[in-house]
Amino acid sequence: MRHSAFFEMDVSKQEDDTEGKSPDRGLRGCGTSENKERFSVTDLEKKERIQAIFNDVAKRYDGNRFFSISAEHLLDCANFEGEGRMLDVCTGTGSVALYAAQRWPDLNIKGLDLSEGMLSQARKKARNLGLKNIDFVRQDAETLTEDAAGFALITCAYGLFFFPDIEGTFRKIVGRLKPGGVFVFSSFTKTAFSPYNDLFLEQLKPYGIEPPKPVITRLQSPEEIRDLCHAAGVDDVDIVCRKIRYAITLHDWWALICSAGYKGLLDELGPERLPAFKTAHFEALEKIAPKGTLLLIADSLYGIVRQ
Question: Is pLDDT above 70 for 56?
Fold first, then answer.
């Protein structure tokens, strides 16, 4: 589940005029800092940086339990019988695919992701669960060939907003469904992770780190999802909203930051500045939550498209 990547930054659009700005700022959301030349980020470079971030956080990624909660919600939305072939796009550490493999043991499942680190964790979990009906493959969903069709169920958890050509990718995924098949995808609402993520990003600015707009700000409303479907030639889509909320500690929040795309921003601070930033961030969080408990909001939208 590339919920993979809910904190990744959109570095696909860079300004040619870098006057008055740090010339490497567009890379900061992706944990890269040494390029001091003017640059333009290609789709391939963007994907490589996303891979690097998630390879780095893969072993800590499953500490974010809202992913497993959402995986069950997503499969419930499918209203699926559990027969045939399933494709899980942006599978990450396999949350959706693994739940599906256990729920529907006769289902033949293929999970795709760009991060070998995330796939390694997914394969390890599948082995530990003794699952034989699932295969995790390193592959870009944008390169699926025409013969990769006939799927009864396709899922994509928190992954569509990563694709530079989101309309083309959406159209291609839907085209891989068999007649009667269903595609279910998820994205975060506008309230997800607020106000803590806003505070985190604001506190980075005095350090000269001002990241681009996070990609999770795409598909944050039913209207945006319907617009995407319409642009991709899909007229019928059902949209379900689910609240995912639970209490966490300040240390849980910090662990979440360190196990997702924001880790690249922390790396920009370096070991000299990181302790002071962490102290300041905790002090600001304590003003919001004097008892040391935060309400994590990971409210999500689920789009359901049927062939």
Answer: yes
What is the extent of the structural domain holding 127? 1-14+21-307
DSSP H helices, the chain, are 43-57, 66-78, 95-103, 116-129, 166-174, 196-204, 222-231, 250-258, 263-288
User: What pLDDT digit, counting tens, does each position of 206-250 carry?
Assistant: 999 987 666 657 899 999 999 999 999 998 999 999 999 999 999
Its sign, for the CA torsion 55, 61, 62, 66, is negative
Q: What's the whole-model pTM score?
A: 0.83
Q: Rounded to whole angstroms, how far apart are CA atoms 27 and 18?
A: 13
pLDDT confidence of residue 146: 58
Q: Report d(CA 70, CA 243) in Å as an integer.
A: 9
CATH number for the domain including 267? Answer: 3.40.50.150
How far apart, in Å, are the Cα atoms of 119 and each of 18, 135, 256?
A: 37, 10, 19
Triad 108, 110, 112: Cα angle to 5°: 170
The C-alpha atoms of residue 30 and residue 263 are separated, in whole angstroms, by: 8
Strands 293-297 and 245-249: antiparallel
Torsion angle, CA of 76/82/85/90, rounded to 10 degrees? 20
Coil/strand/helix, residue 97: helix
Q: Looking at the 3D structure of the chain, how many domains does it have? A: 1
In terms of Cβ atoms closer than 10 Å to its own Cβ (0-12, 13-18, 19+), residue 203 is middle
Task: Specify the DSSP element, H or E, that contains 154.
Answer: strand 151-157
